[in-house]
Amino acid sequence: MPRTALRICPLCEATCGLTLTIEGTRVTAARGDRDDVFSKGFICPKGASFGALDADPDRLRTPLVRENGELREASWEEAFDAVARGLRPVVERYGADALGVVLGNPNVHTMAGALYPTVLLGAVRTRSLFTASTVDQMPKHVSSGLLFGDANAIPVPDLDHTDHLLLIGANPLESNGSLCTAPDFPGKLKALKARGGRLTVVDPRRTRTAKLADRHLAIRPGADALLLAAMTNVLFEEGLVDLGDLAPHVDGLSELREAIEDFTPEAVAGACDVDPDTIRALARELAAAPTAAVYARIGSCTVPHGTLASWLVDVLNTLTGNLDRPGGALFPQAATDRTPRPAGPGRGFSLGRWHSRVRRLPEAKGELPLSALAEEIDTATPEGEPLRALIVIAANPVLSAPDGNRLDKALGSLDFMVSVDPYLNETSRHAHVVLPPPPPAQSPHHDFAFNTLAVRNQVRYTRPAVPLEPGRMAETEILARLILAASGMHGADPAAVDTMVIDQTLGKAVQEPHSPVHGRDPRELAALLTGADGPERRLDLMLRLGPYGDGFGARPDGLTLARLLDHPHGIDLGPLRPRLPQPLKTPSGRIELLPAPLAADLPRLREALRERPTGLVLVGRRHLRSNNSWLHNVPALTGGTNRCTLHLHPEDAERLGVRDGEPVRIKGAGGEVTAPAEVTDAIRPGVVSLPHGWGHNRPGTRLGHAGREPGVNVNQLLDGTLLDPLSGNAVLNGIPVRVGPAGVPAALAPEN
User: Could you tell me which residue ranges the 4Fe-4S Mo/W bis-MGD-type domain spans (predicted)?
Assistant: First the structure.
């Protein structure tokens, strides 16, 4: 008989609750959980396809080990023996930094990915960390770190209560939101309009979100920071700055005014291609609204001035008094956050504590730019050793990083590589060992990261919907064993990893004066933890020590794992609330409006005032049925409009001799690709668009459906040299390209 089970969807940042229909051990259907305290039944096509993804026949079921140049199936014991033999000699001979760790964004969608990579990094002590953040969101982390002293203190728009929302470089009707966890983002935007609110969208494409807006500005790609600086200028010049309750918490107001005085609407209009009167109107409307929020995402981050744009978003929210107030942009408080410390000065945020070996690129948030990964492997320098081994967890940088062809070759030269991945994909095919995690239905789920970005405070946890299939290993155990193998403790009980973390966490907590367990015996506290295994005990620990927790008895009505398990649809913890000054960790204990690194980058933005691109520039795009390169092997998610085509405006198509549906050649600094043309007036003239995550045509993969319709890799158009200097984030949008009919030789192609 079919049965049902609850599961939180792991396929995008919306984290919707699902009700799965299960026959035997197979998920046969998925629908929205109407009783979920957060998503209330909302579901998108990705969640509806949960069963197809879960049962994908191309998912690896057993480890693979390379022998005589070929990957073969192996036992788990063989696989971890090979990992220990492959990694330890590299570290012992060349040092810890010769071992690189690459983390993909699926890590934030699993419990294992949230709980173990930080432990791995602490155990192997390498500074060679590369993640998907530097091809996505690192500018926001850096700007938050500099403004607020904490790279993870990211305010989110109070979507349910705001009167005015300005969206920049974001398309939540397709992406479901990013760095803003909000089930049914489309419904929240429609509700905003229904209650008389105003929605403005700034995007070079007329996206589905832009079509919903009261005003759509088709800005020139890459000019977001200039637009925001001019709006800031208007607030000062017209006397519209009103800090309200923020006034005691803000430093640098007069210095900021002086720093942006050059960025008048007239000065930026040409570079932005936005009329000065419109810029003034945007600033006045933002200041006049009863409540308002500015929200910007990947389109504003993956550009040359991504960190400045991210900073100016929060500057505008601050200057209009909308930061940290209902209806504005607020700091969420997740149930697994550490016990809030008393407000006061902190250590702040530092950049460039170390640098990459080849280009001397500075670290940000402990990470080096993913764009530098290939050169750190294939380039010799007098300083330090090249990367000789890699641990790659849930990442596919051959498709997601610039110049995948170079990285593809570099990976083949490594002494050793281990991938934790359910697929043999464009990256994992180079591994000497592949460790496949089980399908999501066989794994537990709690959203550690996304709850810190949620538009409503809540907590949910779901245990595996079906038992672990014989022969599989839980992802948590895979990563625990990987930590032991990489750190020289191969063969130890993997449960020791969780025990170590619990002991260390409690040892620190009992010494913190503001902790609810200050002065208690950590062994006594450890004995009180509940849970079926180490990961659940760690979740119980984090809940108990968190802002809503029971404090191990100090607050009897507080959260524990046992209480959460009694609420299978989750526990609502209420709307976002003002929290300042507690989240601030700057040296001053205040919002530092003009941090020195940002002030030092403003001359580069002034240079952009004179820039006028004359040829075509490229931007990416999202689709509701995609999430980077993950989901192209699921047939239900690659039909309809989810295709790898080049969008271009009819005027550009006519000038270039390109016809709708015919192949078109796109050439950038890093290479050339050919894709079908899709002529549409939904994109502004002078701009073309290719989606991200495609290019599944390399040999040696096991992605049957994706390989039949591979698309092309947009990141191959990049050579990896264009970066936002503060964050190291790759410049993926607004890059110059040449476009022409595929049959026309490059020398004869029309000039853009």
Answer: 2-58
For residue 467, the tally of other CB atoms under 10 A from its CB is 10
What domains lie within the chain, and their CATH numbers?
A: 3-54 (3.30.200.210), 61-126+369-445+461-491 (3.40.50.740), 138-337+582-605 (3.40.228.10), 493-569 (no CATH), 613-748 (2.40.40.20)
Phi and psi angles of residue 689, each rounded to the nearest 5 degrees, phi first:
-140, 130
Cα dihedral value 501, 503, 508, 509, nearest 10: 100
pLDDT band at 479, cuts 50/70/90? very high
CB atoms within 10 A of CB 747: 5
The residue among 370, 359, 360 whose CA lies nearest residue 101 is: 370
Tokens encoding 53:
């993804």
Residue with tokens 């030269």, as numbered in its chain: 413
User: What is the greatest pairwise CA distance in the chain?
Assistant: 77
The Cα-based distances of 254 to 240, 449, 590 in angstroms read 14, 35, 15
Terminal alpha carbon distance of the chain: 62
Give the predicted TM-score (pTM) of the model. Answer: 0.97
For residue 751, which phi and psi values (nearest 5 degrees)? -70, 140
Q: Encode 495-542 in three state secondary structure.
A: HHHHHHHHHHHHHHHCCCCCCCCCCCCHHHHHHHCCCCCHHHHHHHHH
d(CA 117, CA 477): 12
C-alpha separations of 645 from 69, 204, 690, 693 in Å: 36, 17, 6, 12
Q: Which two tokens stand for residue 496?
A: 């020791």
Q: From residue 713, how far is each of 647, 679, 692 by CA, in Å?
A: 15, 20, 7
Cis before 581 (ω within 30): yes
Q: Write out pLDDT tens, residues 596-631.
A: 999 999 999 999 998 887 899 999 998 888 877 888
Angle at Cα 662 formed by Cα 658 and Cα 663, nearest 5°? Answer: 90
Positive or negative, the CA dihedral 361, 367, 373, 376 is positive
Helix (H, G, I), strand (E, B) or coil at 613: coil
Structure tokens at 692: 């991200």
8 Å CB contact between 279 and 263: no
Length of the chain: 752
Note the pLDDT of residue 749.
46
* E-state strands within 104-256: 129-131, 156-157, 164-168, 198-202, 215-217, 250-251
Whole-number Å distance between alpha carbons of 493 and 283: 59
User: What is the Cα–Cα distance from 220 to 169, expressed in whole angstroms?
Assistant: 11
- DSSP letter, residue 290: S
- Mean pLDDT of all residues in 162-172: 96
